[in-house]
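Example protein as discussed:

>
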Amino acid sequence: MTVSSPASAPNWSAFRVLLAGGFMTLLDVSIVNVALPSITLNLDASASQLQWIVAGYSLAFALILLPAGRLGDIFGRGRIFALAIAGFTFSSLACGLAPSAVWLIIFRFLQGTFAGLLNPQVLGLIQELFSGPDRGRAFGYNGASIGVSTALGPVLGGLIISLLPLTWGWRVIFLINVPIGLFVVPLALRRLPLNSHKRVGKLYFDLPGLGLMGASTLLIMLPLIIATQDATPLNAPWWMLLFAVVSAVGFAFWESFSEKRDNDVLMPKKLLKTTSFILGAGIGTVYFVGFSGYFVALNLYLLNGLGLPAWKAGLIQLPFALGGIISSVLSGRLLVRAGRLLVASGLFFTLLGMGAVCALVLFAPTGGMTWLLPFFFFIAGCGNGFVISPNVTLTLEEIPLSGASTAAALLQIIQRIGTTLSITLLTLVFFAALPLSLRTQAATSDLERTYFSHAFAAALGVIQVAMGLALCLAIVDIFQRRKVSGRESKN
């Protein structure tokens, strides 16, 4: 089949292949959270191993993003897409058949690597296959698929866990990717452009910079994970945080040295001189640190703390995703008029929704008022949709076109690292607030349910601090933009 160019008729059949592949990897992010209690019981996974199962996927995703984009540019995005889908399918099969928690952690890291390899190819191929209004429509459909996968994941995962025996429920969550992958790979080879799009210049990855950034992240994660498993978190190797700082300083020196040699770097100096980018990246990072681990703590609370069936836990979360879809659609129309004020409003509503959830959990610690949770989740979800995409648009607004790809890649990497740290931090706070005996088992009495409620409230407290900090940065950016605008109007 001949693949159309941007100048010819839009290739929607190829686009459907892209959506199928991207949807599969995105679904796997949200669907796994519902399975964590089942994995704990079936594989005898510890609290720290649960952190690795979720955070390892996100970390691998983050670290492969930059090389993935460059590989697609050099060797052909269609080829790399097909390779990524094949690898994701194989690693999903391996996850579904994992004999132990340790093997599941390894296979999840591999799965995250192939998911990160695929992500830049989807965005690059949309730009390659479409132009004009059709490109906008394609990006819009892609954004909608992200929202649908987020909404569908917990519900589908909950139904699978509820309908199948304990031994197979969580495994099928991974294994459903296999037939989809076997269907998508040959379609990708037939319908996507496989020819190489060679770049001018040498093939160079900033692997030392990426390695130092990854090392900093790991050195922050490790004491958090060890503290989760330890009965006395103060005995964890917190000295590793000092080496994380050393690694971060090394990253800064390396980037400066490498840029002087005219090499491509993760963090060019011109980005650091753009105030809107720095503030926007700060907002995104702090927001993801607070927001991303929320669903892990929520599912542990609903399933282990309140003893809800998995399907019901999934349905309770659905309004969050629906609110996000609605506000994401509206944000495209409102962003031009509202600007950074839209992001600040979204942060306020997310903070309001999370605060209401925290108050409800503390007011009814045995779960007597869970019917109110969907309403508060909807409010928080609406706020979420006004934050993520508009923040990316505003953060990249003043970046010259020549550096837009680098800035976008760096922004995505930082956000994924924020996600990884969020998972480890919030699960640490959640488990540290529980008695040791409850960290790997469900509550069976009102007293134990109260312990879980207090643990979830503690995690929500961290989230509210992060949201509050992000809101402060957004307000600073509003005043900064007004200051610049006033200066320009005078000139």
About this structure: The radius of gyration is 22 Å. Residues 268-484 form a domain with the Growth Hormone; Chain: A; fold (CATH 1.20.1250.20). The chain has three domains: 10-190, 208-261, 268-484.
